[in-house]
């Protein structure tokens, strides 16, 4: 597991904030005229843009192959002026997929700290094919109505640490990803060794913490602790679908406080679409060895949905010391719904479904693929 020591190798400290403010001004002038907006190739692990097939608009701030860099700004603000992009997304008038606010591609040893990011067109910080990324004391906000805006997206990246940050998004607050179907499988870059700690999260129409649905390169060895999740459609979500391949495994989530959340845990094995028709129907994802413990929830509508599929059931889900107060708890039997999942539970209120009590205790690591 990553403990931040790798970052001590940061050699040069480049304070980019002034440069960023300058880029922002030219960005704000450009944004009104997308024909001036630069277009770039799709990422190889996706094969196309996220919103639309084909190319995508270049991000506002790009860090391609950056290394040993600190992006900081005394809590200064960078405003992505997302509204025009959200309107274009909603009215289906985008020519290419929306730009992100910040994107690091193949970067190494990067610190982003003491900055506030507002109104990202799509993702606020997207890190792809990166190593050693430390995000610290960052605030990222978009309004609840903004379509599919996501805060921080570690994507096919290793050794990522997100700490002491506050993220309030239209869709997901933090989403871990690793490529899409056949493109992600052949690129084969996992997201691994991620620590998320001391974060305040809100996800109006998605999930405060999500895994997938693009996870074909695999996601493993993730620790989330001390998260405060509020006013979110779901708290923690695992999303995948047959055709993805890949895995989500060795995930440990603890010390979570949830308030006003629709579904506390949502694991959906039939979620999301395919990039094109070239995907392999027999590429089944593995979701295994997920540990959720020491969690309290208030004003929760539904405790958990765990829906694996017949071809790829979810296995070894361990729940312990979880106490959720369900509003309108007239029918606690409906608080959990499960199919094609196995796991164990101790000290869980309300009482989980039988599938999640199918063996006595958690065991071993998931077998390697
Ligand atoms: C940074 O700014 C945001 C709003 O712009 C504010 O909510 C937050 O408290 C500030 N953080 C610090 C450490 O000053
Ligand atoms: C961010 O601010 C905190 C508190 O002022 C400070 O300790 C930390 O060093 C700052 N981070 C960077 C990278 O300057
Ligand atoms: C409970 O959560 C719902 C949203 O899930 C919210 O609308 C409602 O105001 C919350 N109630 C309280 C008492 O906070
Ligand atoms: C799982 O995802 C599918 C496809 O998006 C959706 O139709 C279904 O309602 C989801 N199930 C749950 C429990 O959210
Ligand atoms: C159960 O979890 C709560 C936090 O949600 C924690 O304070 C408490 O110590 C845990 N109990 C045990 C027995 O670990």
From TrEMBL:
Keywords: Glycosidase, Hydrolase, Lyase, Membrane, Transmembrane, Transmembrane helix
Residues that span the membrane, as ranges: 6-28
One GO process term, biological-process aspect: carbohydrate metabolic process
GO molecular function, one term: polygalacturonase activity
Keyword Hydrolase: yes
Superkingdom of this protein's organism: Eukaryota
Family to which the UniProt record says this protein belongs: Belongs to the glycosyl hydrolase 28 family.
Alphabetical list of PANTHER family matching this protein: PECTIN LYASE-LIKE SUPERFAMILY PROTEIN, PECTIN LYASE-RELATED
UniProt name for this protein: Pectate lyase superfamily protein
Organism from which the protein derives: Arabidopsis suecica (Swedish thale-cress)
């Amino acid at each position: 597991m990553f403990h931040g020591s790798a970052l001590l190798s940061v050699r040069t400290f480049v304070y980019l904030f002034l440069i960023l403010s300058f880029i922002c001004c030219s960005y704000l002038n450009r944004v009104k005229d997308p024909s001036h907006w630069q277009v770039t190739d799709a990422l190889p692990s996706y094969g196309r843009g996220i919103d639309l097939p084909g190319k995508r608009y270049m991000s506002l701030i790009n860090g391609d192959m950056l290394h040993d860099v600190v992006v900081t700004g005394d809590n200064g603000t960078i405003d992505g002026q997302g509204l025009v992009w959200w309107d274009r997304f909603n009215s289906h008038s985008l020519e290419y997929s929306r730009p992100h606010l910040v994107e690091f591609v193949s970067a190494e040893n990067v610190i982003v700290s003491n900055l506030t990011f507002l109104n990202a067109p799509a993702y606020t910080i997207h890190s792809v094919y990166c190593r050693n990324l430390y995000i610290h004391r960052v605030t990222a906000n978009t309004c609840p109505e903004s379509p599919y805006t996501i805060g921080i997206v570690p994507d096919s990246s290793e050794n990522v640490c997100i700490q002491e940050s506050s993220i309030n998004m239209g869709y997901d607050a933090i989403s871990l990803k690793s490529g899409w179907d056949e493109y992600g499988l052949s690129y084969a870059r996992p997201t691994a060794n991620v620590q998320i700690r001391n974060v305040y999260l809100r996800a109006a129409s998605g999930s405060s913490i999500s895994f997938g649905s693009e996870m074909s390169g695999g996601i493993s060895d993730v620790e989330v602790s001390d998260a405060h999740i509020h006013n979110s459609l779901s708290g923690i979500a695992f999303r995948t679908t047959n055709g993805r391949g890949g895995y989500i495994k060795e995930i440990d989530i603890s010390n979570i406080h949830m308030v006003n959340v629709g579904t506390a845990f949502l694991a959906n094995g039939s979620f999301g679409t395919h990039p094109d028709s070239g995907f392999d129907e027999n590429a089944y994802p593995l979701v295994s060895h997920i540990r959720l413990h020491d969690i309290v929830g208030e004003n929760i509508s539904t405790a958990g949905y765990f829906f694996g599929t017949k071809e790829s059931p979810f296995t070894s889900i361990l729940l312990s010391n979880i106490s959720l107060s369900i509003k309108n708890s007239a029918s606690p039997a409906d608080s959990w719904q499960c199919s094609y999942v196995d796991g164990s539970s101790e000290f869980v209120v309300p009482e989980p479904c039988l599938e999640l009590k199918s063996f006595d205790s958690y065991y071993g690591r998931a077998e390697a693929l």
